[in-house]
Amino acid sequence: MTVLMHLSDLHFGAHDPLVCAAVQRLAQRLGVAMVVVSGDLTQRATAQQFEQAARFVQGLHARSTLVLAGNHDLPLFAWWMRWGRSYERFSEQFGMDQEPVRQMGAFYVVGVNTTRPWRHERGSLSSAQIEHVALLLARAPPGAWRVVASHHPLVARDAGDRDHRPHRADEAVERWRIAGAQMLLSGHVHQPRLLQPLPGLWASSAGTAVSHRLRHGSPNSLVVLSTEASGAAPDGRARMAARWDYDSAVGEFVCVDRVAAG
């Protein structure tokens, strides 16, 4: 079995150390091969908060990591950094590549940056980004689970959720589905959910993994994708998506939902 852990909206600076420790224990227990963090690692994009986030991610001991910036990872109060230096503190801890691509086992993950220095909250996608991701998906190894990760959600659960999506979201979803995308990972809304917007395409949004910034009555949560041997699957390998929530009564994350996702 190959395991990918998807985290989002860590918000270091507004984090809970007990929940952080529980995530690290879960990662070790599951033997996580890849970690994807889809943005908002910090609360206010300070150097100290990025250092805390980097130590936490390193403590998951995954063989591969893919980390994206979120809107909270661009300086808000240090407004002068938004002109040419917006990703400086992020890059010091997580590298210069703001749209990384990773392959680990059965997973092929393409990261796309939906943040913009001139936007405080809402994201955007350019036509060039959409086409670039499509070309990368088309080059994925045969049989790989083709995943696209972004901070802002590309699929809305209801009409009230549409404002959270980046500009050109509909265009991106359709183009990437044609190119072979099978799973979309995102965060931003702090509300876990798993949808199948189109045949063959799933969209999973993780809640806030370790912060106090809980919304909509949702607890701290994360998503685990796994591939495992299955005689019932056409290619002999089942693809599963599971939601894990933090249970404060026991101080651990527990699996609350698990579905076949491809």
Automatic annotation (TrEMBL):
Source organism: Acidovorax benzenivorans
Alphabetic keyword roster: Hydrolase, Iron, Metal-binding
Database matches in Pfam families: Metallophos
Record flagged with keyword Membrane: no
Name assigned to this protein: Metallophosphoesterase
Xref: Gene3D superfamilies: 3.60.21.10
InterPro entries registered for this protein in UniProt: Calcineurin-like_PHP, CNP_phosphodiesterase-III, Metallo-depent_PP-like
Domain Calcineurin-like phosphoesterase: 4-192
Family stated for the protein in its record: Belongs to the cyclic nucleotide phosphodiesterase class-III family.
Domain of life: Bacteria
Transmembrane segments: none
Ranges in a coiled coil: none
